[in-house]
Prior knowledge:
With about 70 residues, the protein is mainly alpha-helical.
Amino acid sequence: MKNTAARSYRAVRQLTARLEKGFAELQRNPDRGDISITTVIIWVAAVTGALLIAGTIAVVVAKYNGNLSGI
Length: 71
């Protein structure tokens, strides 16, 4: 039990130190370079387009599966 308690205490100390460093960095440099909403819209459109293309291919392959088996 001592070993587990010591490890837990050490982990909490390390996590606390890391969070404190992160908050200090955030106060020194508040501009974190967050992505813009335009970038998010472009990524969503790209992923949606890719899924639609993949879905269309899957439908065509399923429809003509018997005809494509001899290729």
